[in-house]
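Lab notes, practical 5.
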Amino acid sequence: MIISVFSYLGLMITNHKRLRIYYLENVIYIADRIKILLSSTVPSTQAIMNELSSDERLNGFELERGKSFLNDKDYQKIQALINSVGMYDIDSQIEILSEFSQYFDMMKNQYKDDYSRSYKIYILGGISIGILISILLI
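Output from the prediction step:
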């Protein structure tokens, strides 16, 4: 039982790290999607938001979940970007979106590297701690 609990904790940590990568992929997708919409047409802010809300890839995606995956500064960058859609001229908005995508793509790649290096450690660490505690309790 104890081994199972600690193994599950290790799996939860790895799942959280994987979800953080998935979250950033969707944030980058949103920025790129807005950039494409601004480049191809000149839709209103409401039209952009309607387009994003009807996008199948973003079904079930919640920006609010970023609070649990990112630090406050990065989460505020995401909120500021979403709130700034339509506030600037198209060229400035596209430049802002490009910088945003590059920054979060770099961050996503760092998280991917961290995940690929350490996910086995978290799982094996959970199993090992569970075994160690079980042995100590016997």
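Observations recorded by the TA: The two ends are 13 Å apart (CA to CA). The longest helix spans residues 90-137.
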